[in-house]
Design a protein that fits this description.
The complex is a heterodimer of chains A (360) and B (370). Chain A is mainly α. Chain A is built from 17 helices and no strands. Chain B is α/β, with parallel strands linked by helices and 370 residues long. The chains are: A mainly alpha (360), B alpha/beta (370).
Chain lengths: 360, 370
């Protein structure tokens, strides 16, 4: 799609973009990641939601100062051409590794549950082809895909109803029964699951009603937070603390509690539908990486998209040990936190510059 | 032009290179042996006898079930051994029942076996677990002349049929939940072969990771009532409340329970209020011909209340001695306790626990005859 700054995204596009990017593989293992809190994890997603709403503010603010520039441009303006470009390069790397991490995580899950007798090469190639197709349509096609994703996958909430019926409400009590260390541990591991709203900094210039962007993004964030909250609440009701700690993909086991006489394993339906959620997240990240490449090179071309997809393929399939891969992906996850801090830094830089300009 | 060329080359390439693909190694459905029942029997501390029953669909075979049995130390190793014996590929997608014999439940590591199955993504969540009195292998190998295939028979027996008979059916998730939850001790149905049939004899109660004792189905019914199950199995009451020996049977019971704790773990005390609604289906005793007015029924209800209260109190006295908590009553203290809850605390609470029981029975009908 065109690279000139046409305004493309309506209010509902913004809501569902934010919402669908946030929900990826993270939520599948959210109860496990928060398990250091034991039964007290129920309300953590709500706290995360508050933090997300607060940290969203500097992102929108810095965007509103440069309504026609995405974060790559802003970096170059505020940090200077060379420093800005270097940092943009690292952003692109981060996006690529992060996407590869999500894909690899999901594909290994597919391999261990749905397709135990196959290698993941073919599914990864199919996935990447679809991804290229979605991303080459530009941010608007991603936003539309996100909307579709939401309405297709929200029905899966129904699959948790059996677990809800079986669960014990009394697990919610006592409230606030944890130590600071446990809280920190849960915070560190769990917040990852709701990352994704920071991409607003990249598609902000395409939004039609930029004045209301904060409100629309908030709606998206809180839809996701609500979904996360339901997930943790039902997990807490259904599992013992040992199970919370030791079941890696709690949501799948919640689905397994289902009782249809004609379907033996509902978790397979769930996990295969999940591909929509993964596609919508990764598409947005890949689009951001593509925008980054556009900002680095002089000539824009769709070929870069294919190159990026090939790079992702090799990161996923790289002939290195699983251990190294895991470390790389974990590291990139933690680097993901940087995007929460980064706009703050930019805001400070911006304010300092303005002062200088006023003085001189 | 170039597009045509591209189409042509890709077509040719795809057509020719198809021959280079690896031959797919997928097992056709006829060659898959779907395990229906697994039985574990105790040999010694390290070894268990693993027996599996696989439905046989081949019309040439005389028996409708294939049984394989090996001695093994690891579950997965045993499965590999069985695969060597079998003409089919063993899969667990249709596993329905896991049997553990009493000796293994008392001395062996049941948790490890069940955990292995729980970890396996192939195994569904509807797998029921039961404890067998003698040996599971014998139970599977025996021919039940008037019953269908053992796979169906055992599953149907353990499957919760809608409150026709008492059934503490426990699937893999329930068992893992109960055994890893510090406020609960798991219960499993206890079955035994009796001539040509299999019978649910009672309920095996675990203490920690091992089986501790068996209790009678009537007592287990009380556990379910206190746990708050909505529909109960028919209740069989033997009364002696000043009217001589009486026997009555209540059916289609709706149950609701309210439990209040005093939130004190040093002197634990619970107030349990049970509300039972049901149909009086049969009565035998002194008042047989006087039960046609609502007043006389009210008197009977009071007597039933007293009787049930006594039963429950007796049962709790037994639990105090055994120090096991199959109904999860310590949960009512954990809810108000700050800090980590440990299994020892449950033991302590259940040994000291005092209960106040209040039962409120109402007989909705006695059938259509007066």
């Amino acid at each position: 799609m065109s690279t000139n700054n046409k305004k493309l995204l309506n209010a509902y596009h913004v809501v569902f973009l934010t919402q669908s990017i946030m929900i990826g593989t993270g939520i599948l293992s959210l109860p496990q990641k928060l398990s250091s809190l034991g039964y007290n994890q129920t309300f953590m997603p709500l706290l995360f939601g508050v933090i997300a709403s607060v940290t969203l503010w500097p992102m929108i603010w810095i965007g509103s100062k440069y309504p026609d520039a995405n974060l790559y441009r802003i970096n170059e303006i505020l940090l200077g051409k060379w420093l800005g470009k270097t940092i943009n390069f690292f952003f692109i790397l981060q996006f690529l590794v992060f996407s590869a991490g999500i894909i690899s995580n999901y594909m290994h899950l597919i391999q261990s549950t749905a397709l135990p007798e196959q290698t993941i090469t073919l599914p990864v190639i199919c996935f990447l082809l679809l991804l290229i197709y979605i991303v080459s349509g530009g941010i608007k096609s991603i936003a539309r895909f996100c909307m579709m994703t939401f309405f297709i996958t929200i029905g899966m909430m129904f699959f948790t109803s059996w677990a809800f019926q079986k669960g014990e409400m009394s697990h919610f009590l006592p409230l606030f029964n944890f130590t600071g260390g446990e809280f920190y541990e849960a915070m560190k591991k769990g917040y990852l699951s709701i990352l994704g709203y920071e991409l607003i900094m990249f598609y902000y210039p395409y939004i039609v009603q930029q004045k209301k962007a904060y409100k629309h993004t908030l709606i998206g964030i809180w839809i996701s937070i609500f979904v996360c909250f339901i997930t943790t609440a039902i997990s807490v009701m259904y599992y013992s603390e040992w199970q919370l700690k030791n079941i890696e993909f709690s949501v799948l086991n919640l689905f397994k509690a289902g009782e249809f006489s004609f379907v033996e394993r509902i978790d397979i339906i769930g996990i295969t539908l999940w591909v929509f959620l993964i596609l919508s997240s990764v598409a947005a990240y890949l689009w951001c990486a593509k925008k980054g490449v556009d900002s680095l090179v002089v000539k824009n071309s769709n070929a870069y998209l294919y190159i990026l997809a090939i790079i992702i393929f090799f990161v996923v399939k790289m002939p290195l040990s699983r251990n190294f891969q895991d470390k790389l992906f974990t590291a990139s996850n933690y680097v993901g936190y940087m995007f929460i801090i980064w706009p703050l830094l930019l805001v400070i830089l911006y304010v300092l510059r303005k002062k200088k300009q006023v003085q001189s | 032009m170039s597009r045509k060329f591209l189409c042509l080359t890709s077509f040719v390439v795809l057509f020719l290179l198809a021959g280079c693909a690896d031959k797919e190694l997928k097992v056709p459905l006829e060659d898959v042996g779907m395990v229906g029942i697994m039985a574990f029997d105790y040999i010694d501390e390290d070894k268990t006898q693993l027996t599996v029953a696989i439905p046989q669909y081949s019309p040439q075979a005389e028996q409708n079930t294939q049984i394989f049995s090996v001695a093994t130390d690891l579950v997965s190793n045993g499965i590999v051994e069985i695969e060597k014996l079998s003409d089919k590929k063993i899969v667990f997608n249709q596993l329905r029942v896991v049997l553990v014999n009493e000796e293994l439940a008392r001395n062996g590591d049941v948790l490890k076996i069940i955990q292995h199955l729980y970890r396996n993504a192939e195994v569904g969540n509807k797998v029921l677990i039961a404890v067998v009195k003698e040996r599971g292998e014998e139970m599977l190998r025996y021919k039940y002349p008037d019953k269908p295939n053992i796979n169906f028979y055992l599953n149907d027996l353990l499957e919760p049929s809608i409150n026709t008979a008492f059934n503490p059916n426990t699937n893999i998730h329930d068992f893992m939940y109960e055994i890893t939850n510090p406020v609960l001790d798991p219960i499993l149905p206890f079955i035994d072969k009796n001539n040509d049939k299999i019978e649910i004899k009672g309920v095996a109660v675990f203490k920690g990771n091992n089986m501790f004792d068996t209790i009678k189905p009537e007592e287990a019914l009380l556990i379910q009532a206190i746990k708050g199950r909505k529909n109960l199995a028919p209740l069989d009451i033997n009364m002696n409340q000043g009217h001589g020996k009486e026997r009555l049977m209540m059916d289609l019971i709706e149950n609701s329970v309210k439990i209040k704790s005093n939130k004190n773990i040093d002197t634990p005390k619970l107030t349990i209020k049970l509300k039972i609604k049901g149909t009086l289906s049969e009565y035998k005793g002194e008042r047989e011909n006087k039960l046609n007015t609502t007043d006389s029924l009210a008197v009977l209800e009071d007597d039933v209340n007293k009787e049930l209260e006594e039963d429950i109190k007796k049962f709790f006295a037994k639990l105090n001695d055994m120090k096991v908590d199959p109904s999860g009553l310590s949960e009512y203290f954990r809810m108000y306790h700050h800090g980590k809850w440990k299994k020892e605390m449950t033991r302590e609470i259940i040994s000291k626990l005092e209960v106040d029981v209040e039962v409120n029975t109402s007989i909705i009908s006695t059938g259509t005859l007066r």
